[in-house]
């Protein structure tokens, strides 16, 4: 495949054979998502490698994605560091990413904009992920700030202080995607803001068409004298 390199990195292109994977890399990545991003957006960030060994410090999975796309050149930024420094840099590159977190509202606003413009291709997100984030936003709005960003104890305390209960509806992946898309269509059709409102409207309508039996009175056996 002919990968599109952004102008900022074309001056760093070297033969693919000039750089090697870090053999001790402890991390695994999602190559399919990386390839989708490269196809949609081009390649814009150079791989960082140790000059003395040619081992990759940052970008092992981006390099693997490029390999699967069949490239013969890679943009590489070589740095002069010893083996221990290279290890520290590689571990820090992974760990700082692990420790990052999202502002869900800001993330959803970005994704919502792209959904309205031309879709989510190349972002690493799909419609199912978008709907899942939307559900989290709805729940956060309803329960008044009980978010994943809080500690578990904080979440439990905040949740217990509210008169709110959740219903979890598990689906297999294929069914979930269909349900998420269906709920999105119903929100638009019914003019509702949240999935919770859609479900409530559907249940209310369905029950209105069905006879609702009166609750049976419980019978209690008389206690022996």
What would a concise description of this structure say?
This protein is α+β, with helices and mostly antiparallel strands and 225 residues long.
Which features does this protein show?
2 domains; four-stranded mixed beta sheet; Conserved hypothetical protein from pyrococcus furiosus pfu- 392566-001, ParB domain; 9 helices; elongated; 4 strands; alpha+beta; single chain; 225 residues
Characterization of this structure:
There is one protein chain. This protein is α+β, with helices and mostly antiparallel strands. The chain has two domains: 7-99, Conserved hypothetical protein from pyrococcus furiosus pfu- 392566-001, ParB domain (Alpha-Beta Complex); 104-208, no CATH class. The protein contains nine helices and four strands, in the order αβαββαβαααααα. It has a four-stranded mixed β-sheet. A hairpin with a 5-residue loop joins strand 2 and strand 3. The model is unreliable at 142-150 (pLDDT under 50).
Chain oligomer state: single chain
Overall mean pLDDT stands at: 83
Order of helices and strands: HEHEEHEHHHHHH
Largest beta-sheet characterization: 4 strands, mixed
What secondary-structure arrangement, pairings included, does this model have?
Blueprint: H1 7-10, E1 13-15, H2 31-41, E2 47-50, E3 56-58, H3 60-68, E4 73-79, H4 83-99, H5 104-117, H6 127-142, H7 152-160, H8 173-190, H9 195-208
Parallel strand pairs: 2-4
Antiparallel strand pairs: 1-4, 2-3
């Amino acid at each position: 495949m002919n990968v599109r390199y952004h102008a900022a990195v074309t001056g760093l292109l070297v033969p693919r054979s000039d750089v090697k994977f870090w053999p001790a890399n402890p991390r695994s990545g999602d190559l399919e998502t990386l390839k989708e991003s490269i196809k949609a957006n081009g390649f814009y960030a150079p791989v960082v490698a140790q000059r003395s060994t040619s081992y990759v410090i940052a970008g092992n999975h981006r390099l693997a994605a490029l390999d699967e796309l069949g490239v013969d050149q890679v943009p590489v930024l070589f740095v002069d560091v010893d083996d221990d420094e290279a290890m520290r840099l590689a571990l820090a590159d992974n760990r700082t990413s692990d420790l990052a977190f999202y502002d869900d509202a800001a993330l959803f606003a970005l994704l919502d904009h792209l959904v309205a413009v031309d879709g989510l291709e190349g972002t690493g997100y799909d419609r199912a992920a978008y709907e899942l984030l939307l559900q989290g936003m709805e729940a956060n709005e309803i329960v008044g700030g009980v978010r994943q960003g809080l500690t578990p104890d904080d979440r439990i305390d905040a949740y217990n202080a509210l008169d709110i209960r959740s219903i979890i509806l598990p689906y297999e992946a294929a069914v979930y995607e269909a349900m998420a898309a269906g709920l999105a269509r119903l929100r638009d059709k019914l003019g509702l803001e949240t999935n919770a409102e859609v479900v409530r409207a559907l249940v209310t309508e369905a029950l209105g068409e069905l006879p609702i039996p009166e609750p049976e009175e419980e019978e209690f056996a008389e206690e022996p004298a």
